[in-house]
Automatic annotation (TrEMBL):
The complex is composed of two ATP-binding proteins (PotA), two transmembrane proteins (PotB and PotC) and a solute-binding protein (PotD). Signal peptide: none annotated. This is Spermidine/putrescine import ATP-binding protein PotA. It is an enzyme of class 7 (translocase). The keyword Metal-binding does not apply. GO terms for cellular component: ATP-binding cassette (ABC) transporter complex. It catalyses: ATP + H2O + polyamine-[polyamine-binding protein]Side 1 = ADP + phosphate + polyamineSide 2 + [polyamine-binding protein]Side 1. Keywords: ATP-binding, Cell membrane, Membrane, Nucleotide-binding, Translocase, Transport. Part of the ABC transporter complex PotABCD involved in spermidine/putrescine import. Responsible for energy coupling to the transport system. The gene is potA. GO terms for molecular function: ABC-type putrescine transporter activity; ATP binding; ATP hydrolysis activity.
Length: 364
């Protein structure tokens, strides 16, 4: 069941503008979103996430390509006929209606009877834990409460797919964290496919079953959070998701799928080669700061050496920025533990070690 497809996006393009100003806001997207999945479209501002979501909703129509929902081509179907609902960033509640009236609004428009509406509204109030506020005007609710009403209203007609366009961005940090857990729970309890749009990589990593990373209208990578974080397809994805050190280098030899890389900072290392690599190829070596550790400069485990440019205390962690011989800065992020503080000063010559499976070699 979990692997049945809910939405298939096939070779979809959406162009805006005319003549020389014409451009593809969605540029040849291919994607299969599974039933029951918490799926996230992630990318920087302007990369086309909202446009892709609006194509699924039917607020925009594709210039080319197919949109298939549970096996049916819906590319030309008007939005109100699609079994899809959307939750917007600004909630778009009706201020003159109560919480219960807002939640029942969609069902009323569908011509459902009073008793059916009342039963469903009470179910939805329970689902979002707002039973005690049923009669309150929505203008008298906090931001988090309004967001719950918007969710309940969108879920009430039992859509097959719920689209969420940056629904948490108007909330403060603590409330956003709470609502992230709440959204995960609502998705699990209702079993509805959620398609969530965000530009916040941490939000995407913590909430999603799978993520599509977008840039300039293109889908660069689709995968589970851990796949994307640990095995980014390219430099853009690696840089956008999490903190990363990039080291320039050149492949000097290849052996059984492993590349030996001579880096501009002087060190050499060996790691799985990108597909179809050849000796002489320019590559970028990627290493997450939390996978590296500071050691003594003469420690046999030191792979890189450099001088400590600065130390930034960050509460849970400390960042050590090390200046390498080619002038680049390498960041080591270490967890702070009681009794282990201090011992390093700016200007110290230090070594950096990391496990060999933490290294990724990327093309270019
Ligand atoms: P954000 O996170 O800032 O909302 P986004 O990734 O959702 O960004 P989109 O809103 O999909 O990006 O926009 C993608 C590109 O398409 C942008 O360059 C935007 O200016 C353009 N665009 C979106 N809608 C239209 C429109 N109706 N007419 C012309 N250009 C548009």
């Amino acid at each position: 069941m979990a692997d049945l497809s809910a939405i298939d996006i096939r070779d979809v393009f959406k162009h805006f503008g005319h003549g020389e100003a014409r451009f593809a806001a969605v540029d040849g997207a291919n994607l299969s979103i599974r039933q029951n999945e918490f799926f996230t479209l992630l990318g920087p501002s302007g990369c086309g996430k909202t446009t892709l979501l609006r194509l699924i909703a039917g607020f925009e129509f594709p210039s080319e390509g197919e949109l298939v929902l549970h096996g049916e081509n819906i590319a030309a179907m008007p939005p109100f006929k699609r079994p899809i609902n959307t939750v917007f960033q600004n909630y778009a509640l009706f201020p003159h209606l109560t919480v219960a009236e807002n939640i029942g609004f969609g069902l009323k428009m569908l011509g459902k009877g009073k008793d059916v509406i009342a039963a469903r509204v009470s179910e939805m109030l329970k689902l979002v834990r707002m039973e005690h506020l049923a009669k309150r005007a929505t203008s008298q609710l906090s931001g988090g409460q309004q967001q719950r009403v918007a969710l309940a209203r969108a879920l009430a007609p039992s859509p097959k797919v719920l689209l969420l366009d940056e629904p948490l961005s108007a909330l403060d940090y603590k409330l956003r964290k709470e609502m992230q857990i709440e959204l995960k729970r609502l998705q699990a309890e209702t079993g509805i496919t959620f398609v969530f749009v965000t530009h916040d990589q941490e939000e995407a990593l913590t909430m999603s079953d799978r993520i599509a990373v977008m840039s300039s209208g293109k889908i660069l990578q689709v995968g589970a959070p851990r796949d994307i974080y640990d095995r980014p397809a390219d430099r853009f994805v690696a840089d956008f998701i999490g903190e990363t050190n990039f080291l320039k280098g050149k492949i000097t030899a290849l052996n059984e799928g492993k590349a030996q890389v001579a880096m501009t900072c002087g060190a050499t290392l060996s790691a799985p080669a990108p597909e179809a690599s050849r000796a002489g190829d320019e590559v970028t070596v990627m290493l997450r700061p939390e996978h590296a550790r500071l050691v003594g400069a003469d420690d046999p485990n030191a792979i890189l050496t450099g001088s400590l440019a600065n130390i930034i205390y960050f509460g849970t962690d400390t960042y050590f920025n090390v200046s390498l011989s080619d002038g680049s800065l390498f960041t080591v992020r270490q967890q702070n533990r009681p009794g282990e503080e201090g011992g390093r000063s700016e200007g110290d010559i230090v070594g950096i070690s990391f496990p060999s499976d933490a290294i990724r070699v990327l093309r270019g």
